[in-house]
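In the laboratory, one determines a bound structure by crystallizing the protein with its ligand and collecting diffraction data. In a computational setting the workflow is compressed into a single prediction: the sequence and the ligand go in, and a structural description comes out. We illustrate the idea with iron/sulfur cluster.
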Amino acid sequence: MNETVKRAVEIIKSSNTRDLRIMEVCGTHTHEIFRMGIRKLLPENIKLISGPGCPVCVTPVDYIDEAVMLALEKNAVICTFGDLVRVPGTSMSLALARGKGAKVVTVYSPLDATKYAEEHPSEEVVFLSVGFETTAPSDCISVKTAVRKNLKNYSVLTSNKTMPGAYRAMKDSADAFLYPGHVHAITGTGILKELLSEGVSGVVTGFTAAEITTALATVLKKTETGKPFFENCYPRVVRDEGNVAAMKIIDEFMEPCDAVWRGIGEIKNSGLKLRSKYADYDARIKFSLPVINGKPNPACRCGQVLQGKILPSDCPLFGRACTPEHPVGACMVSGEGACSAFYLYGGNK
Ligand code: SF4
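The predicted complex, in structure-token form:
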């Protein structure tokens, strides 16, 4: 253990700060905190709660239903990251749709999807564009590539989200946020300073044990001042101005829209959709998709988990009817989901 980590661990273990709820917004943080045993360091009165920062978890049921409709009724080939395949829709997941003849191709980047479209000109290819500011640039580059190569058989089904709206929606759920470093490497820190001026506290952190423990120690020390705070604990990657080129390409191809977050509902201006100039690449327009009102499993409590209102282990289905092998909700499917983290690491704190 290096000196920085040792010092951070000492601060955490010896803290006698007030009761505190710290939200680790990002699903990767949730898993890393469990994996490295960091929860066990915390005094009893300091609770870590999971937030809505797992892209698959917050993707609404309607979206899965739209993808299933595209695959089964519109004869489109769905290209997607693996996690989304097993997320339950109203009546089925894409994995089940496969059993009914749907063609679902797992890809590792949006450019794999454009490549697939180029190599299969007789097939209509739809890429499932989900994720936060971290993945939106590559989604946009895929559209840019399709435009450049004049691919008429490629489109994207967008359910992209942006974090600022979620922070504001969640600000009363926690005393401080652990902000996701990879998101703010793209957006910069302007929004976080704005939130500070509204009394919202948090620190940006990276993903190593040293970075997370240092960030938690910073939260505890800053809380003792009794004032709202913001600290960039990931300066080697996160700059105030963010990644200007990445933000530029997002702005060129996408515009803000209201977005529905699974279990949470609509958050104003918390999504991204393709600009009308690129309507030919928007799967909803291209395939005239109707508005679908999906119905999530009423027993699943992902919405409360994603807002830090309950722990996954408080859900009556956790570990019984709902396991990673047989997930009932998205939070158990995703490698970044809080329910899967609790299941995998036996979390109960
Ligand atoms: S344990 Fe399963 S059913 Fe319960 S909230 Fe998590 S994903 Fe939903």
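The two ends are 24 Å apart (CA to CA). Keep in mind that any predicted model is a hypothesis to be tested, not a measurement.
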